[in-house]
Automatic annotation (TrEMBL):
Molecular function terms from GO: ATP binding; peptidase activity
Name of this protein: Peptidase C39 bacteriocin processing
Gene Ontology cellular-component annotations: membrane
Species assigned in the record: Caldicellulosiruptor owensensis (strain ATCC 700167 / DSM 13100 / OL)
Superkingdom of the source species: Bacteria
Span of domain Peptidase C39: 5-61
Taxonomic lineage of the native organism: Bacteria, Bacillati, Bacillota, Bacillota incertae sedis, Caldicellulosiruptorales
GO BP terms, alphabetized: proteolysis
Family matches, as Gene3D superfamilies: Cysteine proteinases
Signal peptide: none
Pfam families linked: Peptidase_C39 (PF03412)
InterPro entries on file: Peptidase_C39 (IPR005074)
Length: 93
């Protein structure tokens, strides 16, 4: 059985992190606006910092493990206590 694919599109060029996080949240049943994510992350005209991503993920109650600055693994625990892994790749500009 195929799982439905969710995609939240960016509103502008600085929304890539917010759109990615919103997509991950939607995939697991939590609808969060890009504006709310930007506010929590402190996104500015240059985008979102890695620290901003950590703040957002912690705000929504997931466990974030940072292996290095350019590769982040987010473990999402659903209501059944099962861990699903979602990978977010960050590249140096």
């Amino acid at each position: 059985m195929r799982r439905r694919y969710y995609c939240v599109k960016q509103h502008d060029i600085t929304d890539c992190a917010a759109a990615s996080i919103a997509t991950i949240c939607l995939q697991y049943g939590k609808e969060v606006s890009i504006a709310k994510i930007r506010e929590i992350a402190g996104t500015d005209r240059f985008g979102t910092t890695a620290y901003g991503i950590v703040k957002v993920v912690e705000h929504f109650g997931t466990l974030l493990i940072v292996e290095n600055l350019f590769y982040i693994i987010i473990f999402y625990y659903n209501n059944y206590g099962e861990g699903d892994q979602t990978f977010l790749n960050l590249y140096k500009a």
